[in-house]
Specification:
143 residues, mainly alpha, 2 domains
Length: 143
């Protein structure tokens, strides 16, 4: 494949939306983002696997024996809730990362999901999973 064609439907990296004053995306820059996202998918999948195995152990330990010390039960419940939170957070990040890769493949990477304006190349290089421009993200956080 021609390296200048970095997205689907014949869209090149240079065709992705950018904010005024930004240089167009290069195929190399977009490949760096893609590589980072793919690496993040592998890392998050591993994290989810570890959290889920921890949860299995905590659930198994939490159901053993009547008369367990209440402090032990409380500690186990806290650990279980913490692992569930970590696993859920990792799943959410994994979904966001996969969505970013789909946007790249579809040639829509860099357009705000809310208003359609460019997110900004600098923002995406710092946070490749961003789906909202700064203005829409600020509005969302004020709610």
């Amino acid at each position: 494949m021609d390296p200048s064609v970095a997205t689907g439907a014949g869209t090149t990296a240079a065709d992705l939306p950018i904010r005024p004053g930004e240089d167009p995306w290069t195929a190399e820059e977009l490949q760096e983002v893609r590589d980072e996202l793919e690496s993040e998918i592998a890392r998050l999948a591993d994290q989810i696997e570890v959290s889920e195995s921890e949860l299995v152990g905590l659930l198994r330990d939490g159901s053993e024996g009547a008369g367990r010390d209440p402090a032990d039960v409380g500690s186990t419940n806290f650990e279980r809730d913490h692992e569930m939170s970590l696993a859920n957070n990792a799943r959410e990040l994994l979904d966001q990362t996969r969505l970013a890769l789909r946007h790249i493949a579809n040639g829509t990477y860099g357009a705000c999901d809310n208003c359609g304006k460019p997110i900004g190349k600098g923002r995406l290089q710092a946070f490749p999973r961003a789906t909202l421009c700064v203005e829409c993200k600020q509005r969302e956080e004020r709610r």
